[in-house]
Automatic annotation (TrEMBL):
Signal peptide: 1-18
Gene source species: Anopheles farauti
Name under which the protein is recorded: CHK kinase-like domain-containing protein
Keyword list, A-Z: Signal
InterPro entries recorded: CHK_kinase-like, EcKL, Kinase-like_dom_sf
Stretches assigned to the CHK kinase-like domain: 151-339
Keyword Signal applies: yes
Length: 421
């Protein structure tokens, strides 16, 4: 399962397997796809030439917030003649009871993603094209909230795009850094030209994240067990307890527009399973495309940058190139803004580093809640039972995990993210 997700929401969902991922709803039928094609192509003469066979939308073991299916639509039009076909991937709301349905029941995340693919991403791509750059994303085909919620995109999996895991080289990180820098910079330009942009993207996922307190308590509870079992961890006990007491208020404030740095439109779910890569014959990543824009919001870039550091590279790449990755991002971000003719103040690299330090509690949160999943075999443990605190976390005995957590907790203590006072 994809246990590397960049936020609690995504992680909770990826670890939940619902029956509605195995059986397509009856309304996803040929009549529906005929309507979709006619509407998306603005062509009432389109007729299907064969039935649309639904396939699972994810690889075995990869489960996401939405229920996903794929299909190929073959059709004929009086306008164009001949038979054409298009591969589609669709995201629908979960219908089976469970964590997925609970999280997405109000449809807010679907509304955000439909708006992103149909409006905001085309504008970002337009701005990039004007300066000779290409911001790529799957083509929007259809989206609706009623009578049923669905988002349909062109399926690009047959165009050489592949999903990866944690990135193991600095070179393979470069296309990812460029993508998020483009996304952020273009959003700043869009906001400067549209006084309503920030308000239109004021969504906050903080309350939803904090509402799943079982997993959060489990993550920090595991750290507490380390402080009780091993003497070398004992001095972290009180600082961690104090940190957890203030976690909710920190998280709520985090998703409000920053008062200390230039805000951007964050991706918000920026992790290794929410991107596809083009890979050359030598296995090097030559391009990257981001997916799943369902919790984008106008706030501090520190959120996406901590995901960039914590949820995408291997620990080795992060340890070796942490500062270089932030420098690379800042150089790209600043360059894109200048090339687009942005006249506002661009934060310095020092401004950005201070903003990261100011919000370093998010990184500590990532380590507490997510890092242990890198050290366990999901097939060997009931993940949902683990989240609920019904079984003990086996990685607490893992020497590599303990060494990493001791190193990182020491860093957080020395930089003031954890406080002994």
């Amino acid at each position: 399962m994809c246990l590397h997700c960049a936020c609690v929401v995504s992680t909770l969902l990826t670890m939940t397997y619902n029956l509605d991922e195995l059986e397509a709803p009856e309304w996803l039928n040929d009549d529906f796809f005929l309507k979709v094609m006619r509407e998306s192509q603005n062509d009432a003469t389109i007729e299907l030439t064969s039935g649309c066979v639904l396939r699972p939308g994810t690889n075995k073991g990869d489960h996401y917030a939405s229920v996903m299916f794929r299909t190929t639509v073959s059709y004929r039009s009086q306008r164009t003649g001949g038979v054409q076909s298009i591969n589609l991937i669709m995201k629908t709301k979960p219908e089976a009871d469970g964590l997925k349905k609970e999280l997405l029941d109000d449809g807010g995340m679907f509304a955000i993603e439909i708006d992103m693919y149909s409006k905001t991403l085309p504008e970002i791509a337009r701005l990039m094209k004007e300066i000779g750059e290409e911001y790529m994303y799957p083509r929007f085909i259809y989206g609706a909230m009623k009578p049923r919620t669905i988002l349909i995109l062109e399926d690009i999996s047959d165009q050489g795009w592949v999903m990866g895991d944690f990135i193991n080289t600095l070179d393979d990180m470069k296309p990812i850094v460029k993508d998020i820098a483009m996304f952020h910079a273009a959003s700043v330009v869009l906001e400067s030209a549209n006084p309503n942009f920030a308000e239109e993207h004021s969504f906050s996922v903080a309350d939803k994240i904090m509402s799943f307190d079982g997993m959060i308590k489990k993550g920090f509870g595991d750290l507490k067990q380390l402080t009780q079992r091993y003497p070398e961890f004992a001095h972290f006990a009180k600082p961690l307890e104090k940190f957890q007491e203030n976690l909710t208020s920190f998280y709520v404030e985090l998703y409000k527009p920053s008062k200390t740095i230039q805000n951007v439109l964050i991706h918000g779910d920026f992790h290794s399973k929410n991107m596809l890569h083009q890979v050359d014959a030598d296995g090097r990543h030559t391009d990257t495309i981001l997916l799943d824009y369902q919790i984008c919001s106008w706030t501090t870039p520190a959120i996406d940058l901590y995901y960039l550091l914590d949820m995408i590279p291997s620990q080795e790449v992060k340890d070796r190139h942490r500062s270089e990755l932030i420098l690379m991002y800042h150089q790209q971000y600043s360059d894109f803004l200048k090339r687009m003719g942005y006249l506002g103040k661009i934060p310095t690299l020092l401004d950005l580093q201070i903003e990261l330090l100011r919000n370093a509690a998010l990184e500590l949160f990532h380590y507490a809640v997510f890092t242990s999943f890198r050290y366990m075999d999901p097939a060997a443990i009931d993940i949902e039972a683990l989240i609920k605190g019904e079984v003990n976390n086996p990685v607490l005995e893992n020497e590599d995990f303990k060494k990493l957590m001791h190193t990182e907790l020491t860093r957080f203590l020395h930089q003031g993210t954890l406080s002994c006072a």
